[in-house]
Amino acid sequence: MTGWHAQRLCTFDLESTAPDPEEARIVTACIAMVGGGRSTEVSSWVADPGVEVPAGAAEVHGYTTERVRAEGKPLADVLPEIVGTLATAIAAHLPVVIYNAPYDTTLLDRETRRFDLPPFGDLLAGAQIIDPLCIDRALDRYRKGKRTLTAACEHYGVRLDGAHDSTFDALAAARIAWTIGQRSHMTAVELRQLYADRRRPDEIVRAFHAFSGLSLDALQGWQAERYRESSLSLADYWRDEALKLSAQADRDEPPALPEITDASPDERRQLLREQAAELVQRADSVRTEWPFAAVAP
Question: Is the dihedral of CA 186, 190, 195, 200 positive or negative?
């Protein structure tokens, strides 16, 4: 069995202060070199971003403001090391595995711009990115449930030693990428047996086999197009849901809402319209660029 998944891979993950990469600041980072018949090499960093770490973010990854100040180095010192390590891997033509690549790459691009470093996004022009989240959504489109890293680890049967730790997450992403690559080289009989409980197992078999024939260079454009399709589909779904909420708000007797069980009809209408407006806003803000979002003009 041969394929990109069998060669040496670089895998990368960030933990940060916020879910929006335009606003987030880096708190921890990991870059690991794995596979290819060689031992794993891990580089990790704790960064003091120079801002308060929100309680919600600290609850997710465990790094409070006090902890990053005690254990970390200033982000201005850490950032060139992170970018330099990734640049070395890219120059060596190692595929870089990033689960949900647009988040981490966009965040790193914005951080380099904040510190007047060469924009990280420019470095990606020569990179070969493997985004297991993007690939998983494309190959197994109708699987129900979440697509978080934890959920993907459970689905693909790979080890996750601790969620929302940048080192554990980076290594788990590489394991998922390897497993996807390995499955793509299974026979049709093996794949059909693996997905026998699905409504469309033959479609999954065809998707994996078509995927196996892509070169790393071709895979870049394939992921970009699949990500765009997925993003637009999500935006369409949110707009459809917004229309349903608006229609409910227009009824003479709007439905009861679990958020406010004793609300009057007018209060229910108002909440339904607010929820609809929020969904439309989400749909309008969806970005379709992969592997990172360009700076808005």
Answer: positive
